[in-house]
From TrEMBL:
Alphabetical list of Gene3D superfamilies matching this protein: Alanine racemase
UniProt keyword annotation of DNA repair present: no
InterPro entries: Ala_racemase_N (IPR001608), PLP-binding_barrel (IPR029066), PyrdxlP_homeostasis (IPR011078)
Keywords associated with the record: Pyridoxal phosphate
NCBIfam families with a match to the protein in the record: YggS family pyridoxal phosphate-dependent enzyme
Name of the protein described by the UniProt record: Pyridoxal phosphate homeostasis protein
Amino acid sequence: MTIGENIQTIGERIRAAEQRFGRELGSVQLLAVSKKHPAAAIREAFAVGQHCFGENYVQEMTEKAAELTDTGIEWHFIGPIQSNKTKAIAVTARWVHSVDSLKVAQRLSAQKPASAPAINVCLQVNISDEASKSGVSPSQVPKLARQIALLPGLKLRGLMAIPAPEHEFERQRAVFAQVRLLQQNLNAQGFALDTLSMGMTDDMEAAIAEGATIVRIGTAIFGCRNAINTGKMALTNPL
Ligand SMILES: *Cc1c(COP(=O)(O)O)cnc(C)c1O
């Protein structure tokens, strides 16, 4: 299967899930997660109409963005954020899904180039995995959302979650339902959050069932990632 064929297949899976779970057709956007895959693979996906790409590592995103400036790709940053790396993120990414502290949000707000549109921001919620260090605990989300909503240069769009791996569909769904309820509670308090960034290759359908508006798909598009990230991008397509 080529990358183009994989994207077509994922599109069909998304549309089937929209239909099956009563979601409006076209309400779920595909974010292609290209971490650890080379710029050439991204170009292949872009050639079949995929315009949004997610990256986890700042330097990798910056290097690929520099190689692909001719495309006008929309970059989404989805990885853990060290506060000393926010400048590069603010310059390159139109979306940041993984904001989990006021400090990071303040730096993105201050470092966004004046000429650039507001950065779209999601708060990453630590929904199921107590061991994970990323994400805000659900009880802290309303306070942080209120603080971030006041920052210039950022547009708070919604919530992002990476649940602990879970094989059973109904259990996947139960966790995503908690994220959806959190969003509903915020909107009942006056927010107008329109984004739920949730669902990956193995739990995409459950996420769509519970209201995902962006699914972040890597493996099903680009194949397996090399286990060892040498810091250099792979030169060969692992597919
Ligand atoms: C790697 C990654 C993905 C993609 O996961 P797949 O299982 O390869 O689809 C999605 N979201 C985040 C935050 C990731 O780090």
